[in-house]
Amino acid sequence: MIPSAKSLAPSKFGNPARSAPFFHDVNGRLHCESVALERVAGRVGTPAYVYSSASIAGAYRSLDALFAGRGGLPHTICYAMKANSNLSILKLLSRLGSGFDIVSGGELQRVQAAGIATSRVVFSGVGKSREEIRDALRARIMLFNVESEAELETLSAEAARLRLPAPAGIRVNPEVDSGSHPHIATGNRGHKFGIGWTEARRLYLRFRQSRWIRWQGISTHIGSQILDIKPFRRAVTRLAGFARALQRAGIPLRYFDFGGGIGVRYSVESPLALRTYAGVVRAAVKPLGLRLLLEPGRVIVGPAGVLLTRVLATKENYGKRFIVTDAAMNDFMRPALYGALHPITPEAGAKRRSRSGSARADIVGPVCETGDCFVQDWPIGPVEAGDLLVLWGAGAYGSVQASNYNSRTRPPEVLVSGSSFRVVRRRERFADLIRGE
After folding, report:
1. Predicted confidence (pLDDT) per residue in 262-291, tens digit
2. Residues 6 or more apart from 214 whose CB is under 8 A from it?
3. What are the extents of the domains in the chain?
4. What residue ranges in 244-385 does DSSP mark as E strands?
5. Which is the CATH superfamily of the domain at 10-52+302-434?
């Protein structure tokens, strides 16, 4: 379902920069930190992703600080790489002390390519291949989060073959409805993720004396873009109860992995306060004497990024207004995939012409799909061909979901630091599209 702003007044959205404090107006020009976005677009072209390193670092430090200091507890933030796996972002987070949550062998290779210690890696995911398990064992990662009995059998067999005991925990499905979009809810009955508690307990006990499975933790993850504290409270309370039952049964545990899922504001959402979230998690975990693992992704990088795009043309069909941009659904899939509503605003030149700011239009891309639409009935005001537009909240699940559909090259990624910026992924060329064919 394509996102629509038809029923919402323009004032409802407010200023998107309020949710992205390192993006601000300077003398009528939108800047990321101290770099004008028009300057970036002029240098690298459009469409292009732009990220603020200060925003990423600030978000990480803010969350980390809530679990540190007096009243805190031992913890490791394991950044969920699936949100944005650019090597430069991984290196930035590594310097801050982050661990990493991976869901594929390719993500493990990215950690290694970035020069990051694999002892800081947690391997999640419902379908790990034998080869991926083998590589992760050789890399001596911190923890495997196991999601089925079949996976546990494979992990045990590969650990025995390599004579490398596997540090493991089971991802428990706590049967908690996260309240998020059905495509990103992961902790309820009927979802493919995790194992029910009764089955999980049986497996913990079955492998208690195993030479090759070393029980280290218990985990859960109930979904993504969660805006209410209630699902988190239910899930962490249930998982803490499961952990206590395992401890009473003599299962040695070291880690309590509570996953990620903290939501952010894109347009009209009201995210929960991080301090409230941290208080609920601390209260449940601290009595267990375990080290807390968290796997945030979106909340770290989502507000840190924007997608820059230029207007190709404007048109009307039967009284309906369209703005056609050079970005498309292949560059940014969230609206087409999840019905996600991302604000789009004109950069300075168009803003000066937009006095009313309330004229609405569908903002669409050039891909041959009706679904190639970022938003319908959006209050953007008058724009012209060549104007620069900004799509907000594109730091998470943006570039990582981009494709080459319609034989389109994927956009570059740019990382800003203070008054300088650099391309951290170049724009693809046609030769990249046909390599291997």
Report:
1. 999 998 889 999 999 999 999 999 999 999
2. 165, 166, 167, 168
3. 10-52+302-434, 85-296
4. 255-257, 291-294, 305-317, 320-325, 344-346, 360-364, 373-379
5. Lyase, Ornithine Decarboxylase; Chain A, domain 1 (2.40.37.10)
Per DSSP, 223 falls in state B
* Residues acting as catalytic residues: 368
Placement of tokens 């025995």 in the chain: 160
The verdict on pTM exceeding 0.85 is yes
Mention every residue, 6+ apart, whose C-beta is less than 8 A from residue 226.
178, 179, 180, 232, 261, 262, 263, 272
Tell which phi-psi region holds residue 418, choosing left (phi > 0), alpha (psi between -120 and 50) or beta.
Answer: left
Indicate the helix (H) or strand (E) that contains 210.
none
pLDDT given at position 356: 47
* Cα angle: 83, vertex 344, 51; to 5 degrees: 40
Q: Contact 229/235 with Cβ under 8 angstroms?
A: no
Pairwise CA distance, residues 60 & 257, whole Å: 17
Burial of 211 (0-12, 13-18, 19+ CB in 10 A): exposed
What homologous superfamily is domain 85-296 in, according to CATH?
Answer: Alanine racemase (3.20.20.10)
The reported pLDDT for the residue numbered 180 is 44
Give residue 358's pLDDT: 65
Residue pLDDT, tens place only, 28-77: 899 999 999 999 999 999 999 999 999 999 999 999 999 997 777 999 99
Maximum alpha-carbon separation in the chain = 72
Evaluate whether 10-52+302-434 and 85-296 have a shared fold: no
CA distances from 405 to 140, 188, 293, 322 (A): 37, 33, 37, 22
H helix runs in 123-228, sequence order: 130-139, 149-162, 197-206
Distance CA 139, CA 120 (A): 11
